[in-house]
Amino acid sequence: MNDDPEYAPATGSDHHPDDPDHHPDHPLETSDALAALAARVDHTNELLQRMLAEVAKTPSTHAIFVDAGYVYAAAGLLVTGTEDRRSFDLDAEGMIDAFIDKARTIFADSRLLRVYWYDGARRRIHTPEQQSIAELPDVKVRLGNLNANNQQKGVDSLIRTDLESLARQRAISDAALVGGDEDLVSAVEAAQGYGARVHLWGIEAGDGRNQAEPLLWEVDSQRTFDLEFCRPYITRRPVTVYENEGAPPPSRDEVRFVGAQIAATWLVERGREAMAELLPGHPYLPGPVDQDLLNEAERLLQRSLRGHGVLRRALRDGFWQHLQAQF
Questions:
Q1: 107-117 confidence digits (pLDDT tens)
Q2: Residues 116, 192: one domain?
Q3: Which residues sit opposite 145 in a β-bridge?
Q4: Which of 1, 22, 66, 139 could form a disulfide with 178 if both were Cys (CB 3.0 to 4.6 A apart)?
């Protein structure tokens, strides 16, 4: 038997601490470990309480998303009986202030991020009216395109992009959406997917509905503004009276030339692609385009063509002749 202490047999108390069968010989080791764990739990709880306190102090935030095309059409029809923007004026600043006041009442413990005003413009160039709206405090104007039929293009995708982005960044907790197009359903779903609540605001329809049912099904709440709410912000424009109404009417050739002149101007202003969209409809023009043509011709001639069917046909003939010659 080797008496060298270096070769002394190991005892139970000499087991390595990493040995799974090892148990501390002293209760003090267990007590220290529990105390350290408790300290870490207390520290974690303290951090959570601080975070919750900060969240509680941070006010919720809301934004208002306005489809201007919907507002013009719905409010104009409700107050004046027509959707044609040329027939009335909209006090956009007054209506935006009314929306802000309403949101302040509904979201009492929330602050306004801003109002987003979505509209269409040819080549996305601001009109003077849109410029004045863009200069309002807390208002952001976002422009889609306007095609040859005076239809907005790209507005719904802009609304979806903004709604989804703000919800994803937790920049808003509530969104008031003023619109009615079914294409907005995907925007609502995207925002809700990130935890935001979406509230649909609409304008009273004289007959039936002016908001898509699938959109009504998806939102968190609905609110409708009636005639009394809209009336102060819509003013019908006076009918134009020309000084030379008593003079003989212009000739068909003169009116045809004016039609060609307008077509040439529109090709430059609206672009060849937009004007080419009209060609498949020959010899008919979409209602809004035909109305624009008539208004512009009357402005150039300084004479009303209402009630002159022959002259109106000559006007369209001149328009189509020039347009077809370009394509």
A1: 998 999 999 99
A2: yes
A3: 121, 153
A4: 66
